[in-house]
Amino acid sequence: MVSQAMTMRPDDADARRAVAPVICYPTETLPQPDLALYRRARARAVKVEEVRVPPREAACFHAPAGSFFRISSVEGPQVGDLNLFHAENLSERFYSGKTRALHGTHLTTGDRMWSAFPWLRPMATIVEDTLAWYGIDAFGGSVHDVIGTRCDPYTNALLSGGQYHHCCHSNLTRAVAAHTGLALEGAEPLVHDVLNVFMCTGFTRDTGQYFMKASPVRPGDYLEFFAEIDLVGALSACPGGDCSTEHSSDSARCYPLLVEVFTPPADALESWSAPAPNGYDRSHGT
Question: Would you say the pTM of this structure is higher than 0.85?
């Protein structure tokens, strides 16, 4: 319990609050993606795979290094929860917290999805975002967030006491189990915090709570990525639909999502190479 003395407003409160913020991780020295090269390669790419993710379910897809994958709204406003893994090493997976620290709470064109320690390298680069126009609204909301974790049955049970099996965490667990052949108990620990594709979120100004609101996504909108390394993706069509009213339920109106994978010819990326794992020597001062 906080003591009364600790809650008293000090005489210099205004001065303390007026201290200017400092960006924790200046990104000027980050290697920058060559979006012009990627777009030239994309113009020559052909579709090689298509996966339709049913409402309130998840599915996996493969995006080889040097390919492109697109997540599209196809029938109605729908958000999706995206996990990424290195296809040959599922322990190397998307690190939402470090991605957030480097690029901010919401991602758009030119931002990258970074992998976990000890690899910490770009997994995928966003090359096109048809919702980039949305920006940041009057509530502080924006799209494609890396602040929410994923809806899950454990929090649902904690808050409601119910058993709901189509939360994105469970959807992703089933999809990863089916893709890998692992039992649910082996697949579940691989599922990780997500990129909330198309989801419109922010933090309330007064209480600092995570909020969601109706996604601006419409059929034809998409988010497209360049695969920097060989990837397996798992995408859940969230049981919250467009997340305008409920986070996880069978009553929210939900729609499928479409994943398409495109491969350019080999000579389209002659000046590109997959990023190497992070250069830290892992000695940790010993």
Answer: yes
